[in-house]
Specification:
The chain is an alpha/beta fold. 41% of the residues lie in helices and 13% in strands. It is built from 14 helices and 12 strands. Strands 3-2-1-4-5 form a 5-stranded parallel sheet, covered by helices on one side. Strand 6, helix 7 and strand 7 form a beta-alpha-beta unit. The longest helix has 23 residues.
């Protein structure tokens, strides 16, 4: 019986593509027939267009033009990784034909990204498996809401969509609470798929950078702290600073920081694996810092500057809360990072998550 995974596999986002890769690889390694459904969400396809002026200000449009080459190159890297490393469905699906996938797959898994966050996909209900004809085929793995509450106008839709699932696996405890509030249903708590693979698995595809002694910045959200923190850390350690997800304007504003504007997925992993220090505000930046046992510092805030529950939960599980930063005063070199403890905790979480996966795939 073939299993179809629906997720944000076409997002030009390192975390999104690597969680897709990890979930499928682990399932294939365990001997299961699985494919990622090549679903094209109209909202996300438009969002990741290489050059578009729709809905953008003049300033944003000019910035897009300045970065066109780097954006195009990065997107090309992502599409090549997707085609080379992920088993995709033969059929390309859209909202108009996604129901046809019922003829191909015996069951469906949605996850492990923020598939239950209406804002990410403009509430594309395909990620809630509304097209699946039989409820016992509807499953999730480490699905995330990414929000703490549902806007009133979506409440009834959320309740109806989620109530028809057979089994749930959720990525954060607050997500479990929200699911129970909506449906009175219990769920498994599962790790992000990047933790289903081990350090050695990631090193096999990581590309070692041609540099040494560096501090890596990886930020997704605007931050007044990240760059200044990295500069203070550089003064203490005499390391150079490099930053992923930089663009042309970022480089003009931040002299002395080397921008990596269009890293491939393999290069992304390599920059983490061989960094001396990492400064980040990203969940997956935190995850790979832990996997690779890095001296890392994380600002655990979201775009709206509220606490990042995903990061907070991960730091709590691994007992690495001391790596959280709130100000420049937190730039301390003598932090005690017990990676033997975090490895043991993540191994337990991994085994529990695999137990859930195998239980649903063997039914």
């Amino acid at each position: 019986m073939r299993t179809g995974i629906i997720t944000f596999h076409r997002a030009i986002n390192y975390g999104a593509i690597l969680q897709t890769y990890a979930l499928q690889k682990k399932m294939i390694d365990k001997g299961y027939a699985v494919e990622v459904i090549d679903y094209r969400c109209e909202h996300m396809e438009n969002f990741y267009k290489t050059l578009t002026f729709k809905g953008k200000s003049l300033k944003q449009g000019v910035r897009g033009l300045l970065n066109f080459y780097y954006t195009y190159k990065k997107k090309k890297h992502f599409r090549r990784f997707l085609n080379d490393n992920i088993r995709l469905s033969d059929m390309v699906y859209t909202k108009s034909n996604i129901q046809d996938s019922n003829k191909v797959y015996g069951q469906f898994i949605t996850g492990s990204d923020q598939v239950f966050n209406y804002a990410c996909s403009n509430f594309d209900t395909s990620y809630f498996l509304d097209f699946v004809t039989k409820p016992n085929k509807k499953l999730s793995y480490a699905a995330s809401f990414g929000i703490n509450e549902i806007p009133p106008k979506y409440l009834d839709d959320y309740k109806n969509l989620l109530s028809s699932f057979d089994k749930f696996s959720i990525r954060e405890m607050k997500g479990q609470d929200l699911l129970y509030k909506l449906t009175q249903r219990r769920s498994e708590l599962s790790v992000d798929p990047v933790f289903l693979l081990e350090k050695e698995d990631w090193l096999r595809i990581a590309k070692k950078p041609n540099m040494e002694r560096y501090i890596l910045i990886y930020k997704l959200n605007a931050s007044d702290l990240i760059y200044d923190f990295a500069r203070k850390l550089a003064n203490k350690t005499k390391c150079k600073i490099i930053s992923l997800n930089f663009d042309f304007v970022d480089e003009l504003k931040n002299r002395g920081i080397k921008g990596i504007m269009s890293a491939s997925v393999e290069e992304f992993l390599g920059y983490f694996a061989y960094a001396d220090y990492v400064v980040t505000n990203s969940f997956h930046g935190t995850a790979f810092s832990i996997i690779f046992h890095k001296e890392f510092y994380v600002e655990a805030l979201q775009k709206d500057f509220k606490p990042n529950d995903r990061v907070e939960s991960l730091l709590k599980i691994t007992n690495l809360q001391s790596c959280k930063i709130n100000s420049l005063d937190d730039c301390v070199l003598s932090l005690n990072r017990d990676f033997s403890f975090s490895d043991a905790q993540l191994k337990t979480e991994r085994l529990n998550s695999l137990k859930y996966l195998e239980s649903i795939l063997n039914e």
